Amino acid sequence: MRNVTLILDDGSRFHGKSFGYEKPVAGEVVFNTAMTGYPESLTDPSYAGQLMALTYPLVGNYGVPSFTMEENGLATFMESGKIHASAIIVSDYSMEYSHWNAKESLADWLKREQVPGITGIDTRELTKVLREHGVMMGKIVFDDEPDNVPTANYCGVNFVDMVSCKEVIRYNEGAAKKVVLVDCGVKHNIIRCLINRGVEVIRVPWNYDFNKMEFDGLFLANGPGDPDTCEAAVVNIRTFLANPRVRPCMGICMGNQLLSKAAGAKIYKLKYGHRSHNQPVRKVGTNQCFITSQNHGYAVDNDTLGADWEPLYVNMNDGSNEGIRHKTNPWFSAQFHPEACSGPVDTEFLFDDFVKLL
Amino acid sequence: MIDKNIKKVLLLGSGALKIGEAGEFDYSGSQALKALKEEGIETVLINPNIATVQTSEGVADQIYFLPVTPYFVEKVIEKERPQGILLAFGGQTALNCGVSLYKEGVLEKYGVQVLGTPVQAIIDTEDRDLFVRKLDEIDVKTIKSQACETIEEARAAAVDLGYPVIIRAAYALGGLGSGFCDNEGELNKLAEKAFSFSPQVLVEKSLKGWKEIEYEVVRDRFDNCITVCNMENFDPLGIHTGESIVIAPSQTLTNSEYHKLRALSIKIIRHIGIVGECNVQYAFDPESEDYRVIEVNARLSRSSALASKATGYPLAFVAAKLGLGYGLFDLKNSVTRTTSAFFEPALDYVVCKIPRWDLGKFRGVDRELGSSMKSVGEVMAIGRTFEEAIQKGLRMIGQGMHGFVENKELEIDNVDAALREPTDKRIFVISKAMKQGYTIDQIHDLTKIDKWFLQKLHNIIVTSQELRACKSINVLDNALLRKAKVQGFTDFQVARAVGLENEMDIDDAIMVIRNRRKSAGIVPVVKQIDTLAAEYPAQTNYLYLTYSGVANDVDYKHDKRSIVVLGSGAYRIGSSVEFDWCGVQALNTIRKEGFRSVMINYNPETVSTDYDMCDRLYFDELTFERVLDILEMENPHGVIVSTGGQIPNNLAMRLDEQHVPILGTTAKSIDNAEDREKFSAMLNRIGVDQPEWSALTNMEDVNAFIDKVGFPVLVRPSYVLSGAAMNVCSNQEELERFLKLAANVSQKHPVVISKFLLNAKEVEMDAVARNGEIIAYAISEHIEFAGVHSGDATIQFPAQKLYVETVRRIKRISGEIARELKISGPFNIQFLARDNDIKVIECNLRASRSFPFVSKVLKINLIELATKVMLGLPVEKPNKSLFDFDYVGIKASQFSFNRLQKADPVLGVDMASTGEVGCLGDDSSCALLKAMLSVGHRIPEKNILLSTGGAKQKAEMLDAAKQLKDKGYNLYATGGTSKYLTENGIENTRVFWPSEDGTPQALDLLHGREIDMVVNIPKDLSAGELTNGYKIRRAAVDLNIPLITNSRLASAFIHAFCQMKPEELAIKSWAEYK
């Protein structure tokens, strides 16, 4: 295995070995504390442009399932059609894997999709650096090619545009209720959660003006990067909210941020984001708490929400916003991921709530 | 938020440590009491286990050293009138007791509210039928099982389900009376045993080979749920989880599988209605996502203690708070102190639990592992690679292994069979098989262990081969050395692999490797266990060392304020909770005196490894290498080696050579007491007597020595092949048989033979000295004569039947030894006393097993005193006269023979008990009765079976037999005993040995449940004597009939229960004995 160095913007260096595709790469370095789910995370479009460090040290144990597609165009086991993270950074890659459902090793998959993977990194120490300094840009450089140094930007880049579908796709066509899903980088499990509940999903590109379409409810999906680069979507959502025909709306993650922006709120970048399976949230004004899966670097500023809106969920660790709702209309959103994949499935009932409203 | 009417709460402990119920409940009870105290609630504790931390001063407000049985608990309730009771913190013992109090209406009668999980929910999880029905209601799959009440029903059920089947006794702890049956013959045998423990026996389809996965789940009364941890068994289903190597978090589950089982756990806990903590065990198909729920434990368990230590989440503390009515959202994460207790820990390390067995201590025991638990303790190893964690763990179990490789070669006749039929050695059989070239697929086929684990183990083999290929340290490159360290190799393993052992002494070789790697910058780093994988800053003191990292999480101040206490390691026979108590007392004292308390220990069942017991906890190895690593970073003011039993004691000399400041008695003095030759020479010098002994290297010398001193002799081999480590031999035949079987006598492995004194009393001196002057002491006396290991003996304190002259001599001799060895700190001397003739058997310059017992009876904390001495602080000599109290403490031993199939439940010079209790009484009989009831004896109803051994013992038992007869008991006696009793005018019914023809047969009476108590005293240790007696003793154990095998103890117990009824025993708390 070739020796590599991860170089952060503050000059910190971490030495490791390459086990994935052998090419230098740059991106925003983020950490994820989940202990399972590397195939799901790697294919989550929200990781576009990021070098994903896993704090759980043992990775690759159960290999990778086959990358098959169902008839409806959704991946059987993955969250999108390809790996979106720019690289994966681990402490102890498992060269051998063992699982009945595995078709190949993580290394082989990374190589096939031309994504670098590095191992032997003290990802706990890396996490502490990111925690203290905030997320940073970083690059993975091969020690025997010291001059081959890649560059990249993260802030201000419209990653949503890169990962969103380019044309309208329909799932479960002909069902009684139709839901428009604004694809900012949607995870397939959101679509699965909707069609499993018997609705037709009309998946539209992130900036598509769906207001002219015939539908019963609006769904705002997750997506990567800075929500401020998605103004076109916010404009469309505002139009929807202003429509005298009030129809239900639910958002997830980026969807929460876009709905909040449409409701007048401001978004800020978190120091190092929430990326894990163990984020505790509390439903505001209740004793109900949930363990949630999260993956976001930006958050809604509660104080800037419009007068007709209120926080729906709050993060129990740092008090940040975890969802909003309209005081009278059936519009709500969650910053966390009720569709899980990967992560706990405790909040999947939100899809039931949404479908019931249609 | 919480119920303000609850002002006083009763907590039930788990009693003596036994297989299946050990130190974990000291930990969980202690945490619960802490949680209640914080709320200003008055606490009452019932627990006869006097060596625990929870029964220490200040932990509970009132402490009762009484049996945890419905009768005594009701008495305490009647007296104390608590508003609430906690049942979930004292294992199955407390749970069963609580359920029975509830069913009998006792709790209702006294208006006692069960806090936390409602009793109905407990019953729903404990009764197999109800449990299956309950989970059927929510479509959760359980193991297909049929509850049977007769053996015929069990046979029919097995045919219906198809063999292989598993048999379980309902309401039994740790799988007691359960096992696998491949055919009807096996079923008949097992079912009979299971029915002896429970009226209900369950027959289930066996799922051998499936994965075994556990989740620890928490729920508050607002229905908020979390899973704190999941765990995966290295060994597939079929081996009791207490017997299995366990890994946390799970390693071979995908996200989908992990969360499928997690969601099911939450669904189950909600449906059952747990408030607090519970454990859900699954069988999981290795070929699909199919599962079965094995069981739900509606209480804190061994697994929850492990999960607590593995994650840093204080499960017992939180469960207690939830029982009071708090929501999870009300509580803070006690590690970060800023984030919420409602969260699920994220680990950035891997944890490996390995059981510790002591099967070698038992004669005849079945070594095969199965669905019933046999291990006596466990260790938890933490690493950032699986290889590192498992190699650490294999060293921690303390069975002479250096890791997965570089051990002494095991001799295995049939590797295939040894892989297929798991024993306590299986992991080492895997190592051997890999070295012999077995493929991973072959090993998997034989063991069904997931290939991922086998592949990781194989990595260690590969590295070992690479090291061996080096042949010399000079060609060992740094990359390989680092790789080996990352995989958990010790310097010892590296030294042995590269062949350094051939060039120099191994201790020197270790230092060569150490210096080499330090010069190459290959050193371990310290990481925190912070529950959130570094996501939030945490001021945690919970640490481990790893080579898989580049930076420390701790900034060392180098202020020389640290005092490092070395812990006691895995619980095993001979060293368990009592040393944890000693360690905790040392930590408390260090803290109180303004020093930084630092603990090194790796036993997840302990209180000393709890998150707030010290200022810094290194959850790591107690090997010389690791301790030195830590001391180099910690740079302490001093190290305490005398409160953790033998493991730290053994490190003293080598640490001293590295100029480690050892507090208290010097390492040289420790060596002078440990080294038999040096100690003996010293005793001769100061004119103190000892039993004649000699270290011998060949049979001629052995015989010559015995000609001189005569039989019986005590034989201690220095190198044990198998079986018991020491034995008493009464004749030439026994001696030769034992030496041939057990020992290898050679120049390199001498055997120590000493004269064995018959009918001598054994007396213990536990004391604390300062600069050679004794400042506090406790003299206690064994009820049994010498020959029963001091750890198995019944001990009374203060000594009740010693001559004043004997006591005076013992004090004088102890004073001389303390002076001679310049003892500063705790020590223990064991004496033999016959008439006024006193001999010293042994001297340990460390705290002994009986320190907590004597400290609590005396109400002087000897460890606190000793710690102050070691810290060089002024201490006042307590002026309390030792004989000046009007009560007696009795320490009785708990045996776990019922868990150890086929083992002969006879006592000898090697220790066999797994735990102990200590009870107080206004006189010896009163204390003895409480103690005996606490370790599971019952007052017999009417029929007693006697076989009272040799002439001497028969005579000793005569008075007791008379008393029994006078009390109206029916006596049954075997041949010799019957004759003797009849000759002495005591009416009895003769019964026949298994080897004799004639009826009634003793065994038939036992199987017919006609006998309430068995007194069976072996004459000697000859083969024939053992076979007959063995069958009776073993039947008594298997049928759960109380058994006593020592005449002195039997007499004392019989005397006690004939003299008074349990109802006459005073219900007094510890504080009421003044």
Report on the structure:
The complex is a heterodimer of chains A (358) and B (1074). With 358 residues, chain A is of the alpha/beta class. Chain A has eight helices and 21 strands. Chain A has helices spanning 38-42, 106-112, 123-133, 159-163, 188-195, 231-242, 254-262, 349-357; strands at 3-8, 13-18, 25-32, 50-54, 58-59, 64-65, 87-89, 92-93, 102-104, 117-119, 136-142, 169-171, 178-183, 200-205, 217-220, 249-252, 267-283, 289-300, 309-315, 321-326, 331-334. In chain A, β3 (25-32), α1 and β4 (50-54) form a beta-alpha-beta unit. Chain A is globular and about 65 Å long. The model of chain A has no long low-confidence stretch (mean pLDDT 96). Chain B is an alpha/beta fold and 1074 residues long. Helix content of chain B is 36%, strand content 19%. Chain B is built from 35 helices and 38 strands. In chain B, α7 (151-161) crosses α8 (184-197), α15 (440-447) packs across α16 (451-470) and α30 packs across α35 (1047-1059). Chain B starts with 7 loop residues before the first strand and ends in a 15-residue tail after the last helix.
Short synopsis of the structure:
Chain A is α/β, with parallel strands linked by helices and 358 residues long.
Number of strands of chain A: 21
Mean pLDDT of chain A: 96
Largest sheet of chain B at a glance?
Answer: 7 strands, antiparallel
Largest interface: A-B, 54 and 56 residues
Shape of chain A: globular
Q: Mean of the pLDDT scores of chain B?
A: 93
Keywords:
heterodimer, A: 358 residues, alpha/beta, ten-stranded mixed β-sheet, seven-stranded mixed β-barrel, 8 helices, 18% helix, 32% strand, B: 1074 residues, seven-stranded antiparallel β-sheet, 19% strand, globular
